Amino acid sequence: MSSVFIRTLLASxxxxxxxxxxxxxxKISNDTDVRKIESDAGMVTIDPKxxxxxxxxxxxxxxxxLEPNDDTPLIMWIQGGPGASGFIGNFFEVGPLNLVDxxxxxxxxxxxxxxxxxxxxDSPVGTGYSYTDSDYGYANDTEVDVTKQLYTFLTKFYDDIxxxxxxxxxxxxxxxxxxxxxxxxxxxxxEHPIKGTRFxxxxxxxxxxxxxxxxxxxxxxxxxxxxxxPDRLAEARRLGEEGKRLALQGKWVEASQARDKLxxxxxxxxxxxxxxxxxxxxxxxxxxxxxxxxxxxxxxKETLHVPSSRSYGTVDAVGEHMSADIMKPMxxxxxxxxxxNITVMLYEGQMDSKDGLISTEAWIPEMxxxxxxxxxxxxxxxxxxxxxSNLEEAVYGYxxxxxxxxxxxxxxxxxxxxxxxxxxxxxxxxxxxxxxxLSLNVTQNDxxxxxxxxxxxxxxxxxxxETYNYVEWN
Length: 474
Description:
The protein has 474 residues and is α/β, with parallel strands linked by helices.
């Protein structure tokens, strides 16, 4: 057996569990501003039994005038899908880098990484650069499997990669199907705190959190956006109510199929309008084309410490394994956070017909928490901020707030709010984090965040005990 073959075989079998490998952007960009950005990236072993690893990319604050300290917040951005890569948020929404074409990186002018530490992950495994070598390594649901993977990653990130960030306030932020991931992960993280960490809150943009109520709201959203006419409204409402009924009965796959039929009707009757942003027929396929080309370049994989034998791209198995999870509710995961005064923010673009404002308003009253009556009686306020184009105040949107809960609608934005309205999104995340920091109890992990193992695991489905062995993998 040749030495070349042996080296190739070993490389293909190696589990990449990194200890914070720096990224040298000069290898993939000639842009001086891009080269100055400091970051770490690589693969973190999630489950050695199945050779499962999760890709991450961490950025330190890029604002040269900022001196980060243990109070500088850390944002963990979680994309949707299931199976959407964190590179979408990184390169097209909130990260410090903008992939302007198939091969060119540029510095993003308005980025959340200016003043905050940021982590982007490809979750669950099988998404983007993240991989597993076994069918048993894929996640089948959010509450156990995806949460398990994210918790394992974050524990190793703190212990092995950036232990100096443990005391920095942590915020979970994401969009779309992260409306599943973030409530479940946030609740588990709150009830099973990683020692020495400070959990600040969660923010969800255009999220799928209570699908039964959201699918039932879609027909009227489509009708009043003029995506369907009065001649098809009854059909649309029938599909919406069918999806809701099936979901409330726990018939998850059948409910998802009804939802798919409704959205297909909306797309057909609208002439191919993008349901994520009804102002456009652009289906965002250019994003995937750029990512597929750029991230599969050998020099890019080498720079980001990805095994050369691995390719970027979400495998079909991710969606197949998660098919019964799509219509499950995650709304029950938010009240424990709110009742403990953990900040929760929801925001939606007004032009999103998929998981936008109206469908979110449909489920908020179903969220039973201590301040729900106060929120129900709260008044809507106009939300304004600076307009970079004319240096005057602009109306960004509208807000309602009660206690630790806030809800924003964003004008002139679709599903991907930071891509459509970067100034408004920057203002939004600053408001969210600044408000959370004011109310953050730095001792929560020692007192109010404590609960018995019986209480803290009660929300999880009943599985064998070994299912919950989150952190003892080496």
